[in-house]
């Protein structure tokens, strides 16, 4: 969950618009959670959702994203 800039080769995939490593990790977590949901692997999605919610609440202070994820 770093604020260091992303290397260009990490954001060349379509749909990623991250400027920091933390933003890229957030986008990847969202994508993984969506795939777990599609695959009906809700237990795994819950684990990552809780980790992401903790980041929103305690590190990023992004309460809009926290609300949306809950």
TrEMBL record:
Acyltransferase as UniProt keyword: no
Keywords: Guanine-nucleotide releasing factor
Family designation: Belongs to the DOCK family.
Organism: Xenotaenia resolanae
PROSITE patterns: DOCKER
Protein's name in the database: Dedicator of cytokinesis protein 1
Xref: Pfam families: DHR-2_Lobe_A (PF06920)
Species lineage: Eukaryota, Metazoa, Chordata, Craniata, Vertebrata
Gene3D superfamilies listed in its UniProt record: 1.25.40.410
Domain DOCKER positions: 1-70
